[in-house]
Write a structure and sequence with these properties.
single chain, about 80 residues, mainly beta, SH3 type barrels, three-stranded antiparallel β-sheet, about 0% helix, YjdM_C, Protein YjdM C-terminal domain-containing protein
Length: about 80
C-alpha cells in the first residue's frame, strides 16, 4: 500500500547501498571496470578491464545498468 499521495513508498531506491566486488560504494554516473572476461549472449564479450562509464543504479542492489546492458556488481570494480 502506498505511503504517500504519489503512490510510492518513502523508502526509495536512493536509500539502497550498492557495492562493487571490493565493497566500494557505487553511485549513479560512476565508472566501473570488469575484473574478469565475461561471455555475453548476442553481444560482444566483455574483456578484463573494459570500462563502463556513467552507470545507473537499478532497484536491485546486485545490479547496475550501463547503456543497454544490466551488469552484476560482483564482476566490476569502481575506477
Amino acid at each position: 500500500m502506498p505511503n504517500n499521495e504519489w503512490g510510492w513508498d518513502d523508502e526509495s531506491s536512493s536509500d539502497m547501498i550498492v557495492k562493487d566486488c571490493n565493497w566500494t560504494i557505487l553511485a549513479n554516473w560512476d565508472t566501473v571496470a570488469a575484473i574478469k572476461d565475461l561471455k555475453v549472449k548476442w553481444w560482444a564479450d566483455i574483456k578484463r578491464w573494459d570500462k563502463f562509464k556513467n552507470i545507473r543504479l537499478t532497484d536491485n542492489a546486485e545490479e547496475i545498468e550501463s547503456w543497454k546492458m544490466v551488469l552484476r556488481t560482483e564482476f566490476f570494480k569502481k575506477v
